[in-house]
C-alpha cells in the first residue's frame, strides 16, 4: 500500500519517553526501521508492519532513519479510552499471560484502508479534533478485534501486574534504567515489600546489586565482545558516561577505556 502524504502522526495521549510501555499502542511504520529488545526477545519493525506494543513491558528500542526520515503512525489505546469503549461494546476479557512485548498484526485490507483514511487529516494545515480522534481510534479498535479476537484478553485486562518471581525478573531486566518503584510495580509488589523480598532473594539491597550487576555486564561486553565504553554504558543502565567510568574504576581498578584498550591490543 502506498500512503502518499501521511507523515508521522499520533492519536491519543502522549507515550512515555521512558523505557517502559505505560499504555497499549498501535504502531504502523511508514519510513525507516526500528529494533526493540525487552530483556529477553528482540523485535525488528520495518515499513508496512502493523503491531501493538503492550503496556507494562520494559523495552529498549533503536530507530534507523531512511534518507534522514523516520515516519510512523502511533495510536494510543490507553486504559481510559478502552473503558469508554467497553461502555458501548460488549466484550469480556479473561486474564492474559505476560507474553511478547509486541504483537504483530497480519496484513489486513481493513487496516490498510483505515491508514489511508487518515491521510486527509495529516496533510496541509488540517488538524484532527479530539472528538474525531476518538472516533478514529474506535474504528481501528473494532478492526483489530475483528482481525484477532484474542486481543480482547490483552487490551481489556486492567488488573495490576501480579506477583512474579523476583530473581528471574531482575536477572532479565537489570539493564533497564528505571526507578525501584517501577521495578516493584512490575513485579507485583509495593516498594517496601519489593525491598524486603529483594534482600531475602539476593542478600543485599537493590541499589547495590543493580550497580554491581550492571558493571559486571559492562566488563563482559568490553572484554569479551570488544565493545566501546560509549556503546555500553547506556545499554547496561547508566545515564552518564563519566559516572559509569568512575563506578567502573572503583569496582575493577581500571577505567572502561583501559579495559577496552587492553583487549584491542591483545593483552
From TrEMBL:
InterPro entries: AraC_XylS_family_regulators, ExsA-like_N, Homeodomain-like_sf, HTH-like, HTH_AraC. It comes from Sphingobacterium athyrii. SUPFAM superfamilies: Homeodomain-like, Regulatory protein AraC. Keywords: DNA-binding, Transcription, Transcription regulation. This is AraC family transcriptional regulator. It comes from the Bacteria. Residues 164-262 form the HTH araC/xylS-type domain. PROSITE patterns: HTH_ARAC_FAMILY_2 (PS01124). GO terms for molecular function: DNA-binding transcription factor activity; sequence-specific DNA binding. It holds the Pfam family HTH_18.
